[in-house]
């Protein structure tokens, strides 16, 4: 049968579509960091148990190592199934030995926490609290496992193509619900939420060796009822993705300061797994949509049928290999932390266990971060080809990622909360300061901090080499 003729005399204004990609020499490795049963795991003020009584899913450390040819250095993105740093000393206790072991400088490592609220209390070393006696040994094992992951990732590194796809997942909702004269941390049906999902696929010789899942949603499904160690929804997300790819998946927590799952806080673990599967299947859908690494679509002409049919064909294309890593410290307006007496007075009428937890949190955050009326907030911007990673230690509201993606639509922009330190504070948007919200009374930052961080990140991204443009 003779095929219908293809007409190529008239072309559209744009004749190619190129996915965002990065050519890197990279490797990925994973180690187990599950703590022992009985370790201190008191992450909720309303919890009535302070110890881990079992394991829902194991905790892991997953490292991505890549070679920065421009600086002739190895860089590391290390993601851990842990919650958050409660003090600067605990952050350095883990990070500094890792840097020494892999001969890296501080700005060579992005130490990222997925933010599970069902992990060990890694910052309670030295405290006379139940379960804290198991933490020193666990800290040593955690450090060793993180080092092994980084070294193994570097040793297995090979030329790879990192392909990105952006889509949606409606797991995350806004979690500031107006309730009387205050907002409670719960699903607000009236407020839209950023549901952007960014997925990266690392391929070596065409085979997937790892995936990256960047999504903004608090892993808070398992709450005060829970006493099991768990990565929360992150565990099932990875399980779904890895069952399809057969390769490790790195979960990267986005700017989720005001975002969480719609259904959470209940007893049992099934809801956490359901939430994770929702995100995992959305990530798999994006992976299925990707073409072969290092290819693009080119308009190939028109076939006249019942309608004029435009044909797009896949062809090989060059993948950018540029790497550009920069760091900055952004001065943000601060407000003084409450004193222990002020904290005790402010919450004198609530449950005493919850009040004690708020007191502990309020007294740890300023060390190494505040300089008088100014907070010194670290910021990292790493460019990998068509992608940009924006990382910082705080819990920024989603405006950080939505605004940067709006301003730089030509790039795949990954935003990572809870990375390195110090600066373990919320960054609410300016209108939030007019409300009685948890994130506002927890933070050490004055209004305007988030907006200044957005401008600083935008400035660093704008200073990078221009992104690729489509061919007309």
Explain the overall architecture.
With about 475 residues, this protein is of the alpha+beta class. The chain folds into three domains: about 35 residues, no CATH class; about 270 residues, no CATH class; about 140 residues, no CATH class. The chain has nine helices and 25 strands. The strands form seven sheets. The protein has an eight-stranded mixed beta sheet. Helix 7 packs parallel to helix 9. The longest helix is centred in the first third of the chain and has 21 residues. The chain is globular and about 85 Å long. The two termini are about 35 Å apart. The mean pLDDT is about 95.
Low-pLDDT stretches are: none
Strand adjacency order, main sheet: 7-6-5-3-8-12-13-15
Distance between the termini: 34 Å
Please count the beta strands (DSSP E, at least 2 residues each): 25
* Alpha-carbon Rg, integer: 23 Å
On the 0 to 100 scale, the average pLDDT is 94
Describe the global form.
Answer: globular
Structurally, the number of domains stands at 3
Beta content comes to: 25-35%
The description of the largest β-sheet is: 8 strands, mixed
Count every helix, treating DSSP H or I runs of 4 or more residues as helices: 9
Structural class: alpha+beta
Helix content: 10-25%
